[in-house]
Amino acid sequence: MKVGIMQPYFFPYIGYWQLIKAVDKYVIYDDVNYKKRGWINKNNILINGEAKPISLRTFKVSQNKRINEIEIDHDLVYKKKLLKTIKEAYGKAPYFQEAYSVVEKIINQNEPNLATYLANSIKEICAYLNIRTEIILSSELTKNEHLRGQDKILEICGLFSAEEYLNAAGGLLLYSPLDFQAQGIELKIIKTNHISYQQKDVREFVPNLSIIDVMMFNSPEEIDAMLGDFTVLNNFSDLLQTSTNG
Hints:
Largest sheet: 6 strands, mixed
Structural class: alpha/beta
Number of domains: 1
Strand content: 15-25%
Distance between the termini: 29 Å
Strand order of the largest sheet: 7-2-1-8-9-10
Number of strands: 10
Shape: globular
Helix content: 25-40%
């Protein structure tokens, strides 16, 4: 049993989807504190050859609230403006029609809760990319709400009798392989390899953009190949070397 756990994000980059596809159960970590300066409600797309931000409007925002306690501002004018920005950026992309229909459906949903909205968007994109991993909300699990950090992750892994816990490279310094090993779980870190594809009107490839960019310029079949283009670091020497190299 392979388990992945991560906060929900607004149209996250391809590494996020690599993690989802690599596991049997993916837990959307929605009952942790919201970060105002994080990527939960924003991302970058390609506009005139450069990475430019797009965002999801929220209100009653506070870092003292959990992600699943944040509300979305469903301003119709803003939604139309956001969709227009995406359409103007990618209108001539080879897979615009297919990808835009998914993006439009996600942005036009009227779900008021941020966590549920993002969970819905993740499931929609998984369906488009034919990712069949089971998606679960952390807040729906019966667990010890007093646990924090690694202990909370270990408990969730235990609920699913996980044999492997996979995390993105950003989690490298957050967890102890020995602590996971003590619970009979192998900690593995996924590091996205260098992925590039033909983008419109760029002199040099712009990496790590929203999955929107990937979907606009690549077919689901081509993206499927990218989803397996990563390196798994699963021994202490790999982890130490990666940590040392930044």
